[in-house]
Design a protein that fits this description.
alpha/beta; seven-stranded parallel sheet; two-stranded antiparallel sheet; binds NADP nicotinamide-adenine-dinucleotide phosphate
């Protein structure tokens, strides 16, 4: 497409009044003009009949999966697991293409494909789903931005994706919600409760309206490499120098964190499980812990004990920390590491719903925190120059006693 481009840059800085007009083709981030705006017919090819190979990374298992939100924390684990079993993965992305290029390693040559998209551009959504028989929506955000509110990202976006997936004849649709999502989440600190959780609940309803057979996952806090649970508590900004403020010292909050690889494996299993269609799964870890004790344990693992100056305090009486949250929101705006919304959500007790299936129903053997967390927190240790192998450090402390 030839677009007339007016470069006014020169006129502003160098030659006032002079406009340079070129007839150069202008590179657009994406171009969907070849895509009809309205409904797509279902794919004509029977993809499973094209299966080939023995089932490893260099084979094709008959699944073409579009993974929205693949650039995120869970997305990388999921794409790797899909690539490992010979899935062709379509990755819609926004922003810089080099940021997600590393995901190309997850599959064989030509099996991981990238397409630019925008959540509110339906043409681009059609384009990335029209050849797929599986769609997985991992899009989510812990904080609102200037361009996207919680409702945009968790309700309207998923609704559009689910509707278009249905139009395209997609056979399996997986959607990520969140544990404790509720129409009116029980407030802990904020009078209105967590807006994130309310929008996740509305997102589930929107997806079910458009794609009733969708498989919905509600994960608790997910931990693993580059997570936002362990790293949140190990970040200096979450502390008041060496004191860690928690609401009521974290004594009234119970958490049941789940390992990222278990969640990713469960999503893959759900695609192949005919019984999973239309069900909601709650992704929680094998044990429940009191938040305060859990955070103490993280600090012990990081060698940040009472000798180092660590102390758990009560956020209700910590006016310095409250002022810091207030100023962070006022000055920096929406900051993922410190906001009232984040603090509210971290103090909501994980409450799995009775009778709702869990990851174990999808054949997952859940990972225990003590088997992973010491490794994950290793980079955050105080006195990191000492080598544990020299015997200078004793064995990692045992995790706190689980609660029922
Ligand atoms: N991690 C947890 O502890 C946890 C707990 C409960 C529920 N969940 C839910 O599980 C899902 C996956 O979690 P995660 O930890 O992998 O999330 P994440 O690391 O924050 O990744 C979110 C993904 O969503 C994309 N995204 C966000 N806003 C977007 C927008 N406006 N338009 C297009 N793409 C957008 C991001 O793309 P960019 O890279 O371009 O920003 C990224 O790929 C999310 O829905 C999350 O809410 C996670």
């Amino acid at each position: 497409m030839v677009v007339v481009q007016v470069i006014s840059r020169f006129s502003r800085h160098h030659l006032p009044g002079l406009y340079v007009v070129t007839t150069q083709p202008v590179q657009r981030r994406y171009q969907c003009s070849d895509v009809p705006v309205k409904k797509f017919p279902p794919p004509g090819t029977n993809l499973p009949s094209l299966k080939r190979g023995t089932g490893g990374r260099s084979s094709f298992n008959g699944i073409v999966a579009t993974v929205f939100g693949a650039s995120g924390f869970l997305g990388r684990y999921l794409v790797n697991k899909l690539g490992k079993i010979g899935t062709q993965v379509i990755i819609p992305y926004r922003g810089e293409s080099y940021d997600i290029l590393r995901l190309r390693m997850c599959g064989d040559l030509g099996q991981i494909l990238f397409f630019p998209f925008h959540l509110s551009d339906e043409e681009s959504l059609y384009k990335v789903m029209k050849y797929s028989n599986v769609v997985i929506n991992l899009i989510g955000r812990d904080f609102e931005t200037r361009s996207f509110t919680f409702d945009d990202v968790h309700v309207e976006g998923p609704r559009a994706i689910a509707r278009i997936a249905k139009d395209c004849g997609v056979q399996r649709f997986v959607h990520m919600s969140a544990l404790n999502a509720a129409e009116k989440p029980k407030p802990v600190i904020l009078k209105s409760g967590s807006h994130f959780l309310a929008s996740k609940w509305a997102g589930e309803q929107a997806v079910r309206e458009e794609f009733p057979e969708a498989i919905v996952f509600r994960p608790a806090d997910i931990y693993g490499h580059e997570d936002r649970f362990l790293r949140y508590y190990s970040h200096f900004w979450r502390r008041n120098i060496r004191h860690l403020p928690l609401w009521k010292k974290g004594k009234e909050t119970i958490k049941q964190p789940v390992f990222v690889s278990d969640v990713a494996e469960a999503i893959v299993n759900s695609i192949f499980d005919p019984d999973a269609v239309g069900k909601t799964f709650e992704a929680v870890g094998p044990r429940r812990y009191e938040l305060g004790e859990l955070v103490d344990w993280f600090h012990l693992l990081m060698k940040k004990d009472t000798d180092w100056g660590y102390k758990r305090t009560d956020l209700r009486y910590d006016l310095i920390f409250q002022t810091r949250i207030f100023l962070t929101e006022k000055i920096i705006g929406k900051y993922p590491l410190l906001s009232w919304e984040r603090v509210e959500r971290e103090h909501v007790t994980d409450t799995p719903t009775r009778g709702v299936p869990s990851l174990e129903d999808l054949g997952i053997t859940l990972t225990y925190m003590e088997d992973r967390v010491p490794f994950e927190l290793r980079p955050f240790r105080a006195l990191a120059y000492y080598d544990a192998e020299l015997g200078e450090f004793e064995k990692p402390p045992a995790p706190p006693a689980p609660v029922m």
